[in-house]
Structure formats: structure tokens, C-alpha cells
Amino acid sequence: MQTEFSNADRAEVLTQALPYIKRYVGKTVVIKYGGNAMTNDALKEQVMGDIVLLHLIGVKIVLVHGGGPEISRLMEKLGKKPEFVDGLRVTDKETVDIVQMVLSGKINKTLVNMLESRGGRAIGISGMDGSLITAEAKDPRLGYVGRVTDVNIKPVFDLLEKGYIPVISTVGSDHGGNVYNINGDTAAAFIAGALGAERLIMMTDIDGILLDKNDPSSLIPELNVSEIEALTKSGVISGGMIPKVECCLEALSGGVKNVVILDGRVPHSILMELLTNEGAGTWIHGGEDKE
Predict the structure, then answer these.
(1) Phi/psi at 238 (nearest 5 deg)?
(2) Which residues, other chains included, contact 239 with Cβ-Cβ below 8 Å and sequence gap of 6+?
């Protein structure tokens, strides 16, 4: 019986991907893997497989992850009700311990194990390791939620140089030893900027930026930074998308070439974005052409 996807088809796919592979070999791509995009185990395994594929063809991948849903679940098991102000988790001393346990413990090491089991070389670190992320209290109402004040990117450079995929949990600390919960998008933007990354990919649980938030077919595939203010004033960019786009702008101003917001629930969305002409999600840039 003839297979639906022949060996010739596979060879053709690889041939068509070659120009994109050449573009990214040796380049750094930071992937922010959002907690809301991590809830499906089968998709999580597929995402890790795609990351290993990129790693094996020579793309320098840095994986920055969140884990909000798992933090909330553990808080509820421990009898603590999650509270949010302006989309940020209120984090008292007990909660920051839970955040550290979940992010730097369970989630971080699970992702490392999944990457290693698929043939990648990965090392998990937190923003506290090597003073990667130095922070201070962002708002007294939020407790131990941090605002990034400095990034020491050397530990990440060292891991990339040795051929590892750094897997980074988004907790930071100050010089007094206090631990802070750092918004994952913010941490990814600062890390990508410090690396001068070729691309920052923000994986989340939405298609990208939509003209009509109730119509997935209204996806805006490309945005120049000059268009963002008008879209925000008109309400196209609203709610939780506002801080996400602000993080994209932070990354671009920090030296990242371009940023993509895409739906991490779509199978192989990372590969579609990097290794095809059409891409995936909303591509945000400062004016250059998309190759």
C-alpha cells in the first residue's frame, strides 16, 4: 500500500527548508514557552522534539519557560487562593516559595529531561543562577513580583558555547537574597535582548494579534512597530495582549532582530515559523523584510 507521504515528499520538504536552515544555523533564537501553552502533554512533547531538531541542525536555542497554571494548581492544593492585579500574580513570601518550587523544580527539570530524552543536550537554570536576573520589587501591592534591573547573560553564553540548550525558569533575586517572581514574557525579552538574538518567539495560547479577537481568521501576520500605537488606541491590541506586545517592543529595542507571537497549541508552529515562507502567528519588526 502506498504511503500518503513518500520518501520523495520528505526529500522535497527538506530541500525547500534548506534556505531557512542556512539562515538560522549558528544564530540564537529565544523561545518563550508560556504556561498556558504547556497544558497539553502531547503537544509539549512535540514542541520539545521540534526544539531538539533545531538544536541538532545548529540553531542556538534558549528556552525560557513559565508555568502559571501549575503554580495556581499547587497553591490551591495548599489552601492558598491565587490573586492577580493587572494580570500579575500577587506573590507573598509563601507564594514565592511555591513559585520557585514549581518553576525551578518540577517544570524546569521536566523540560530538561524531555529535551535530553529526544537527543538534545540541555541544562536547566533559574534567573538566580549566576546572577542571571537581578530584580527589585515591582509594586508593593504585588509583594515579591520583580522588575528586572540587570541581566548577566554570561552563564547563558557559556552554555550555548558548550553546545547546550539553556532552559531558564523565570525567578530572579536581589543583592539582599530576596527571591522574585518574574513575568515570563518580560524575562524572555530581557534575555533575548542581552543575547542580541536573531528572533524571539513568544509561544502562547492564542493565534497571535487578531483584528477581531473573536475571529481567528482575522490574524494580523505582520506588524511594523510604528503601527502598534494606533492598534492599541483602537482596541485591537487590548487586555493581556498589551503587556505581551510591550515585551516585544522591549526585546526589539534591546537588540533582538524580530519577534513573533504564535499559538503554541498548533502542532509544529515553531518549525512553520522558522523553516517555511509563510511562518506562523504575528511577526513584529522594526522595518526590515522577512526573509
Answers:
(1) -150, 175
(2) none
Q: Residue 8: inside a domain, yes or no? A: no
Model pLDDT, residue 240 = 77
Domain of residue 149 covers: 26-285
Find out whether 145 and 138 touch, Cβ atoms under 8 Å: yes
Radius of gyration of the chain (CA): 19
Show the beta-strand stretches assigned E in the chain. Answer: 28-33, 60-65, 84-85, 88-89, 122-126, 133-137, 146-151, 165-169, 171-173, 179-181, 199-204, 222-224, 258-263, 282-285
Q: Are 179 and 100 in contact (CB under 8 A)?
A: yes
The answer to whether 122 and 165 are in contact (CB under 8 A) is yes
Residue 95: enclosing H or E segment and its boundaries? helix 93-100
Q: What is the pLDDT of residue 60?
A: 95
| Domain membership flag for residue 62 | yes
Helix (H, G, I), strand (E, B) or coil at 141: helix
Which DSSP helix (H) or strand (E) runs through 112? helix 108-117
Please name which of 138, 144, 217, 184 lies closest in space to residue 36, comparing C-alpha atoms: 184
Q: For the chain (length 291 residues), average pLDDT per consecutive 10?
A: 59 72 88 75 88 93 92 92 86 93 94 95 96 94 94 96 96 94 93 94 84 80 85 83 85 89 84 76 72 50
Predicted pLDDT of residue 272? 82
Q: What is the CATH number of the domain that holds 257?
A: 3.40.1160.10
Query: In total, how many domains does the chain have?
Result: 1
